[in-house]
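The material for today's practical consists of a large collection of protein records. Getting from the letters to the tokens is the skill we practise here. To make this concrete, we reproduce a full record directly below:
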Amino acid sequence: MAASAGSQIPVVDFSVMSLENAAPLTENNQAVKIVAKQLYRAFSTIGFVYLQNHGIPQEMVDSMFETFDQFFNLSPEVKAKYAKKKMTVQNVNPQNGWDAVEVERTNPNRPGDLKESFDLECFDDETFAWPDTEVPNFKSTVSSFYQSMKDLALRVLTVMAIGLQIEHDTFTRFFSKAGTFKGGVQMRYNFYPKIPDMSRVKPGQIRCGEHTDYGAITVLFQDEIGGLEVRNVDGNFVAAKPMKGTVLVNIADMMQRWTADRFKSTVHRVLIPETELKHTLPRRSLVLFVDPDHETLIECIDGSNKYPPITLGEWKKRRLLETYNY
């Protein structure tokens, strides 16, 4: 039987909108229209796509992995100095800092996730201590890469709007405050520690539980270990295998609401590898959660009111408080 549309994650050549092009092509260009149709098909079915020729050099990606690896190789006592502040209903702090293993529980029906993470959302937070003492040039390296990932994400959002046959800046104009207290674009480095003794894994525990992302889109670089799975249109989980030189992009909850379900926010998870060799290796991923400015009121762009309006800030606060085990 032939595979149904959306049963596998497609690969799209993004060279026409690559960051290597200082002035990307316009929406009237035929090559851009072709890519827009390809993204539309991917995001309206499986909700994920691999992008080739995106314009972020592999050397830059490798440098970022090395920089964060230096941090995660520090002792728990040192990493704890950079732990996130506890969230409350009254105060959801900027997502800056380190989370220990099991602090996040992305599937409430499973134990806490077998991963650590380091988040950066607000770059002008003067109360946040950067770990440059332990990891030289941490802030400058990470800040530069954050900008590159954000620039790429804005080009993806532009092409998505073209694919929907709406104004090209329909989405991008709501991301002007990224990197500040009022912005929602958040970088994360996930570090899944090695598991030398499987008997210590709790029943039902995996590296990252089944979930959907919160905001507009997510941009992801992953290492070669694997484990990420995506639920396809047939209801089956398929592997999002690492592909060197590509970046993985997926739709998140707010974009599904924004487009009145034309784009799909898809459930995904990270399993513990089956092979014993990979248990002894950590897994790492570098993520950009591309969420609109906190004050952005998300309403269905087709005027259908299929979902009630809600600000990104309120939606994100609700989801974060559901997810973290403080």
Notes: The chain has a mean pLDDT of 91. The chain has seven helices and 14 strands. The first helix runs from residue 30 to 43.
